[in-house]
Amino acid sequence: MFNKQVKEYFIFSHREKKGIRVLFILILLVSLLNLLLPCLMEPQPYDNSEFREKAERFMQSLEQKDSIRQYQDNIFSDKQIIQESYMFDPNTVRYEELLELGFSSFAASNMIKYRNSGGIFHRKEDVKKIYGIDMDTYRRLESRINIDVSPRSDSSARSGSFNIGSYGISHSPVELNRADTNELMQLYGIGTVLASRIVKYRNLLGGFFCTGQLKEVYGIDEKLYVSLKNRIVVDTVFIEKININKSGYNDLIRHPYLTSYQVKGIEKYLDFSEGLKEISDLKKFSLLPDSVYQRIKHYLEI
Q: What confidence score (pLDDT) does residue 24 get?
């Protein structure tokens, strides 16, 4: 009887058999479709050009910021170095330079007012007369006070004004590409700090191609430049040029007018070409924007 029950359990009716066959066929079709579908359908390529373009623009902005930061680090001296290195004359030093030397704004203003009212510093100890300068500041900077004892006219001494030539100021124009710090300090308004910055920036550039570049030096504003421009000249013969077809990344990136992104673009072009035929190719092939090209072209050669 048990065998009969088992046999009846595994016996299917005609309808059940038909359903099992249909189910088996469906399973087989789904399995085959799962295997064949990847072969029949080609994957669509993903267009990420827009994302790449945005990423490149973002990286370019970062590299430009790095370049600017590097440029500033190369040009501007650390405040502590300024305080410890530069000599200054209290009769000619500018307000901004006094702040960099460590004077408070109050003491610096009082020193300028003292000079404008006709006061003259004859000895180092005279600096202590200025209200706001404490003994600690004076002792720290005493060894850096250098008072020019060259003679001045009585009228200029009484008025506190210094005409060109009356206080060690040069009559003849100063050539910016050859002048040392002592020659630059002959220009009225240029002290030890600014003279050092001018030389440092000139060396970084490779020389000046026009006097207007002096405004790129930190601390020289439009007003000071206007007062100097008739007493300075530039001889472009002394500009140190870079052979762009023979120079590598490290040679070009040192120039403050070029960013890392721009130098890499020039390098890639040179790698896949026979080199530049003319400097103007930098602009012709859109390797540099016009604003950069107009400045950097003076420092490049083939």
A: 83
